[in-house]
Amino acid sequence: MSPEPAGGYANEVGESFRALVPVSLVGAGYGVATAYVTADAVDKGKKAAAAAQPQEEGRTTRAAVAVVDTFIWQGLASVVIPGFTINRICAGSLYLMGSLTRWPLPVRKWTTTAVGLAAIPFIIKPIDRSVDFLLDSSLRKLYKSEEKPPSF
Fold first, then answer.
1. CB under 8 Å to 81, separation ≥6 — which residues?
2. Contact, 17 vs 43, CB < 8 A?
3. Are the beta carbons of 19 and 93 closer than 8 angstroms?
């Protein structure tokens, strides 16, 4: 998988800052991430269609499979699961600091944000591998084509 553009991490960054910013900014991060996922799915569909001969049978199906597979994979691996994971890491760290320390609330919130940001690089590969396994074990078995969808 190639490095993900900044738009793919917008929701994780938003979740990391949830304790410090208005919820609408966190939601905007999800909007940016969803726009990235959609653009990537459309791009993969165009590339799949372009790789086929103009009159080739199944060209449209191949493009549709690429779009659907990419959108679902990216939706899970770049938006849903990382957003949930960072949200829970931050919520847990804020709760634990509130229970175990006497730090003032602003310090706990900034520390929570730092913990969330620091966790992002560590959660990406395990989530990517898990989503690959999930799709390989389910949705990708439904594809009639022997070809594997575009790799990530």
1. 127, 130, 131
2. no
3. no
